[in-house]
Amino acid sequence: MLAVTGLHKSYGDVVAVDGLNLSVRAGSMYGIVGPNGAGKTTTLSIITGLLRADAGHVYVNGVDAGKHPRDAKRAVGVLPDHLRTFDRLTGAQLLYYAGTLRGLDPATTRQRSADLAAAFGIEDAMGRLVADYSAGMTKKVSLAAAMIHSPRLLVLDEPFEGVDPVSAATVTGILKRYVDAGGTVLLSSHGMDLVQRICDSVAVIVGGVVLDSGPVDQVRGEKTLEERFIELAGGRKAVEGLEWLHSFSD
Ligand SMILES: Nc1ncnc2c1ncn2[C@@H]1O[C@H](COP(=O)(O)OP(=O)(O)OP(=O)(O)O)[C@@H](O)[C@H]1O
């Protein structure tokens, strides 16, 4: 469903992505994990066409996204990082905008909006401005907007950040059913337990490259995914120099 080859991206002197390769099969729930600043958001932004790579290729469902960006984007639903969204719209208006942008007719858009709002449990908030939503509610309406055109691939940057455990279970259920029906999810997360539980495959990105990838059980081996992740990320750092914090100033 997705192939990424030789991806490079620098911001001035900072190398964010350094020759990254990724292969995601159709029907997979694929997790991307990595320490802060590893290049996850940069990679996902390039895959979804929000950012241009310095070098490398992205193929979505066999389509070269660099050469045919419109065709590639049609197949993808995107949840960007930092919840960049049009928050002066109501939830209903945001979903209507997302559906119309994706070429759905008004009746279909309204029907799907109602279905998604019910599935995510945000029906009562549909008439309110997204700017007034809580972080978790904003995440849910943004997820709904990413799904409204029933894309083949969902690229979700931190979909569970700020989402309460009950809502996370709801979101997980929706994503699992989507994957069971043949959809593909690529998500980034700092929740190792969650990735180990819901993803079938994982890539560990450190310093802009994939250090390990494959089926979750293969990548983690005898360890938990968290232990394996910490090992790949260079181990726990011993904290020194904060002794002053323990000599309370009052
Ligand atoms: N717009 C930008 N301008 C300059 N540097 C950037 C920009 N965006 C990202 N970077 C740098 O690129 C590197 C990778 O950042 P990126 O946001 O892709 O990491 P990440 O893995 O998503 O991190 P996190 O887990 O903290 O969200 C970091 O060193 C970051 O400071």
TrEMBL record:
Q: Where in the cell is it found?
A: Cell membrane
- Taxonomically, the superkingdom here is Bacteria
Topology within the bilayer? Peripheral membrane protein
Q: Matching Gene3D superfamilies, A to Z? A: P-loop containing nucleotide triphosphate hydrolases
Recorded GO cellular component terms are: plasma membrane
Q: Keywords, A to Z?
A: Antibiotic resistance, ATP-binding, Nucleotide-binding, Transport
An example of a Pfam family matching this protein is ABC_tran
Asked if rRNA-binding is a keyword of the record, the answer is no
Using the record's annotation, list all stretches that form the ABC transporter domain.
2-232
Q: Which residues form a coiled coil?
A: none
Q: Does the keyword Zinc apply?
A: no
Listed InterPro entries? AAA+_ATPase, ABC_transporter-like_ATP-bd, ABC_transporter_ATP-binding, P-loop_NTPase
Q: List the molecular function annotations (GO) for this entry.
A: ATP binding; ATP hydrolysis activity
Q: Which SUPFAM superfamilies match?
A: P-loop containing nucleoside triphosphate hydrolases
Q: Which PROSITE patterns match?
A: ABC_TRANSPORTER_2
Q: Look up the record and give one Gene Ontology term from the biological process aspect.
A: response to antibiotic
Name of the protein in its database record? ABC transporter ATP-binding protein
- Organism this protein belongs to: Humibacter ginsenosidimutans
